[in-house]
Amino acid sequence: MKKTIIITSVAIILIVIVAGLYASKNILDYSSRALGRSVETNDIDINWGWPVTRIALSNVEISNMEGGSDPVMLSVDKAVIGVNLFSLLKGTLAFDEVSLEKPYALLEKDAEGNANWHFGKNPVAGATLESLSPDDRSDFPVIENLTITDGKIIYKDPAKKIDVTLVTQTVQGQASSEKNLQFDGKGKYQKDDFKIAIKGGNIFRLKDTSEPYPIDINISAGPTTAKVKGTVLDPFELKGLNVKLSLKGQDASDLFNLIGVALPPTPPYDVTGDLNYVQDKWNFRDFKGKLGDSDLHGSVTWDTQGERPLLSGEFISNNLDFKDLGGLVGAPPSAKQEASAYIIPDTPLDISRLSAMDAHITFTGKKMISSNLPLDDFYMKVDLVNSILKLNPIRFGAARGDISSVLTVNAQQEPVKINGEFTFSRLSLKPIFEKITARFGIKNVTDGYLGGT
Question: How far are the Cα atoms of 223, 230, 303, 418 from residue 248, in angstroms, in the given order?
């Protein structure tokens, strides 16, 4: 959303610059030199007035960076700006009206990660863009009436395989009424259909720092949906974020393509919790919900400060259905493992995403539900650091004893090296074999115990 605001601000400030240089015959040349990009427009019409002067431009185009996927980075069919000149004399920006018809913005990075919205080769442009980005809510210009019609925003990042096109039908806001800011978009994210709907307070409330700013965001990407609703003290710095996040999907591993969090395959999930953001850390606290047929609660933190993002936290299930463990222990993500002869299946681990992040996670199943296996509880501790995954331990309470495994996956080398160790502690044989012996009418089986490594 911040990039959308910056794009709009870029267009507004450029128009103000044009107005200030209207008497010059080299308006477009000046703008081109300032940005280091070609700036063109078919018509400039200024209706001078006090305190509001209206500026109308048609067919404005700003060229893209060299090697960009499209020659044009920013364009608008028609722009009408009502500038409050009195506010400019006081060193602030205020607009009676901002109306943009068919604005187009292409935000992209090249293969080396250079962004086309950085005008770094030109110090004038760099200083201008730095001043456009509000440091906090109080820096946001006053806009009495805002209308954006039939807009398009495209974001491309080939390194992350992102190519998203958002079409904005209408964005409207009025400072003098309760009409809220609205933004709707749709397009493609990777191969999935992508939709986003953003609602906020009116434009006046965006600048008002005395009260939290309300936000209501709905996002869907393929089978994954996210709903965010609450308030934020500073939308530009995400300070004072106080929202509820509801996250729902068919498989938690799909989150990797969306937000970079690498989780194993899971059954369908639906969780809701408190989300806040502090110093590059996203905290999803006290979430509750379902994972397949199991209940699920816990808290996690996504820290983006380090060389690799770090996921830390705990997942807890009071009643954990064995078939819902799925990809957590390498089992098929379905009910097939109910009929399996193996408590820990031999399905190969998916190691393709081990280098994407670090993790320190615990998963606890206080009570296990399994129709065919004598399992009591479950515990797993996961540590992933610099492409080395350690599961120490994976432990099942089983048959009045314990089955434990320590597994290490080293993905720093080719081929990947995997080491494992299994320990059986006072494992009662009677509950393991009683279902088998019952089929043959055998009763009163004498108990025995198994232990070892």
Answer: 8, 18, 22, 33
**H-helix or E-strand containing 435?**
helix 430-439
Contact 170, 152 (CB under 8 A): no
Terminal C-alpha separation, the chain: 55
Q: 268-281 burial by CB neighbour count: b if 16+ within 10 A, else e?
A: bbebbbbbbbeeee
Torsion of CA 18, 23, 28, 33, to 10 degrees: -80
In which element (H, E) is residue 34 found?
helix 27-35
- From the list 369, 377, 372, the residue with the least C-alpha distance to 401 is 377
d(CA 7, CA 3): 6
Q: Residue 169 belongs to what H/E stretch?
A: strand 162-174
Question: Cis omega before residue 51 (within 30°)?
Answer: yes
Is the separation of the CB atoms in 450 and 443 below 8 Å? no
* Average confidence score pLDDT of the chain: 78
Residue 70 in contact with residue 156, Cβ under 8 Å?
Answer: no
**Vertex 186, ends 175 and 291: CA angle to 5°?**
105
Determine how many CB atoms are found less than 10 A away from the CB of residue 346: 8
For residue 244, the Cα-to-chain-centroid distance in whole angstroms is 15
- Cα separation, 186 vs 446, in Å, equals 65
* Strand 281-291 with 269-278, pairing: antiparallel
Q: What pLDDT was estimated at residue 442?
A: 45
Task: Provide φ and ψ at 254, rounded to 5°.
Answer: -65, -20
103, 245, 297, 367, 428 from 361: Cα distances, Å: 45, 20, 13, 19, 30
Q: Which of the residues in the chain have pLDDT under 70?
A: 1-34, 120-139, 168-180, 203-204, 207, 327-352, 399-400, 424-453
Q: Cis peptide before 415, with omega less than 30 degrees from 0?
A: yes
